[in-house]
Amino acid sequence: MTVRFGRFVLDGPRRELRGDGEARHLTPKAFELLTLLVREAPRVVPKQELHDALWPDAHVSDASLVGLVKELRRVLDDRDSDAPIVRTVHRVGYAFTPEVTRPVPSAAAAPGRATHWLVFTGRKVLLAEGENIVGRDPSVHVHVDDAGVSRRHARITVSGLDVTLEDLGSKNGTVVDDTRAAGIVPLHDGVRCAFGPVEAVFRASRADASTDTQSHIG
Question: N or C: which end of the chain has fewer CB within 10 A?
Fold first, then answer.
């Protein structure tokens, strides 16, 4: 995901945080924590849920999580205790408080270019040019929070008008229009995909398509 909050832009596909137009450095774990809190905002995310997402195969103390929160606050210039960016809910967890704006596809895109989505129940996820990993890992491009989805489940590659899908050896497999994906599978507008038990519809909109065609997307 790519989102804006205040004077910051969190660019998930590029794994980059920018503030006032300049890159802000975060360690990989701190970036994953920020991504998770932003995605779940304004929900308070319990500490145990954060531990499970950040350290799924290891047991670490709360001090490690506290250290990551301190890193986020330092990088985000989060110093106002009356209006914190990362809010501490004592003995429970943490919440991301700023209003988050998710960019929408530009109607002024160049002719011949396309915008691509995955439509899940209750949400749409814009796909970026290049590689988009689908999985349960909070740091991936298309996060799917379901136990039946592998941490890095599948890869969707966008190259201009061409979009392909490839299963990444997931435990429960990837299905495209009722056929289990084997190798690289091309995607077209309206095709149904299932990542383990989680279903989605792939949608595509060309920038030079008619208004009537675009009105049926999503």
Answer: C
Return phi, psi of residue 69, to 5°.
Answer: -65, -40
Burial (0-12, 13-18, 19+ Cβ within 10 Å), 174: buried
- For residues 133 and 137, what is the distance between their CA atoms, to the nearest angstrom? 9
Report d(CA 138, CA 67) in Å as an integer. 19
Helices (H) and strands (E) in the chain, counts: 4, 18
In whole angstroms, give the CA distance from residue 2 to residue 205: 19
**Helix/strand/coil percent split, the chain, to 5:** 20, 35, 45
The span from the CA of 6 to the CA of 20, in Å, is 9
Q: Is the dihedral of CA 76, 82, 83, 84 positive or negative?
A: positive
- Residue 121 to residue 74: CA distance in whole angstroms: 36
Q: Please, how many CA atoms are within 13 Å of residue 177, restricted to the half-sphere of its CB?
A: 9
* pTM to 2 decimal places: 0.52
Cβ atoms < 10 Å from Cβ of 138: 22
Distance CA 143, CA 200 (A): 12
For the segment 156-201, what is each residue's pLDDT rounded down to a tens digit?
998 878 899 999 999 999 999 999 998 899 999 999 999 999 999 9
What length is written for the chain?
218
